[in-house]
Design a protein that fits this description.
Length: 338
């Protein structure tokens, strides 16, 4: 499984496929209106084939207002889809397709609206869910990756056994798949405790193994048999096959998504008060998100704004004016009486 000479459980080949196929942007504009309703606009510039090849779930159905500008199959072509939503949860439902066998970017949005007498406060959150595999131990593995890169800065020597984040993350998910399978199988010769005790042995064997995707299931079963020394590993086959299917979906997603940049912008009511946006222009917050930002962990974009409530402010002003006027009138009457 070493990245320099092994074929399976390695993602670097997918990156190379995309480098030569060109890059393109997907532009997502969200306009949050004062009443909490939302206008969502998705645009893809470039030839029309990129619409169907994109890893972003581009709206195609008739419930969206579709416009096509320019000539199809040309660089000047722009596909735009727009739709209004009464609340943020409707956007989530629009792109939710749990039965889909093809992985897409999964945007999850949330809008909080809090009314206070003088101001209404808005908080917009949009999260690109980490795609593909489960990556059960991502935090600790990422920490190890950071440590490795720091060490590499102090040394120009790199060997074939250097830490590889993608391989480690995929193995981690494979290991947890086997562990959950052992719990369900409930075979004393393949206990969850045995799987835990032999984790490092399986890791070392899988990392050094040589194979390809066509033989992935057989290779994993063979490695498990060598490590666990029990014929009960045949019971793992359906679980490994399911994992393999998920892995192939993940690699397919990588092929479609690497090279894409998602230009996400949100127009907020009132004045922006806080955000993690890369750029702010007036009441518009913008991010440019590459797929590597949510390859392993969720990527969250958020912005908060404040909008003055005109009517309550005017009412309060009139009330204060009336009070002041009343005080003045009463004071003048008291002076005259004296």
């Amino acid at each position: 499984m070493n990245t320099r000479n092994k074929k399976y459980l390695v993602l670097s080949w997918a990156i190379l496929l995309i480098i030569f196929s060109g890059c393109h942007d997907v532009e997502i504009m969200t306009h949050v209106l004062p009443d909490g309703s939302i206008l969502r606009v998705v645009s893809i510039p470039g030839d029309s084939t990129k619409i169907y090849a994109s890893a972003y779930p581009v709206p195609l159905d008739s419930s969206w207002q579709i416009t096509r500008a320019g000539k199809e199959n040309s660089k000047g072509f722009i596909y735009t889809a727009s739709k209004s939503f009464k609340k943020a949860s409707e956007i989530n439902n629009e792109f939710l397709s749990p039965g889909d066998t093809i992985l897409y970017v999964r945007p999850i949005v949330k809008l909080e609206k809090r009314f206070r007498w003088f101001y209404t406060f808005y908080a917009w959150n949009e999260t690109y869910k980490a795609h593909g595999l489960q990556f059960s131990n991502a935090d600790s593995l990422l920490a190890r990756e950071v440590e490795k890169r720091i060490a590499e800065q102090d040394s120009a020597n790199k060997d074939d056994d250097s830490f590889d984040i993608e391989e480690e993350l995929i193995f981690e998910d494979l290991y947890h798949t086997i562990l959950r399978a052992a719990e369900k199988i409930n075979d004393p010769t393949l206990s969850p405790q045995l799987v835990k005790e032999k984790k490092q042995d399986l890791h070392d064997l899988m990392i050094k193994a040589d194979g390809d995707f066509d033989k992935f299931v057989d290779d994993v079963l063979k490695a498990c048999k060598d490590v666990y020394q029990t014929g009960a590993v045949v019971k793992l086959k359906p679980f490994i096959e399911q994992f393999n299917e998920k892995l192939l979906q993940y690699l397919n997603f990588i092929e479609r998504s690497i090279g894409e940049t998602y230009k996400n912008s949100v127009i907020m009511p009132g004045v922006i008060t806080a955000t993690n946006a890369q750029k702010v222009n007036g009441n518009k917050a913008s991010w440019e998100v590459d797929t590597d930002k949510f390859q392993i962990k969720d990527y969250r974009m958020w912005v908060e704004s404040r909008r003055m409530n005109v009517l309550p402010t005017v009412i309060t002003g009139l009330f204060l004016l009336a009070c002041i006027t009343g005080i003045i009138v009463i004071s003048m009457k008291m002076k005259k009486e004296n």
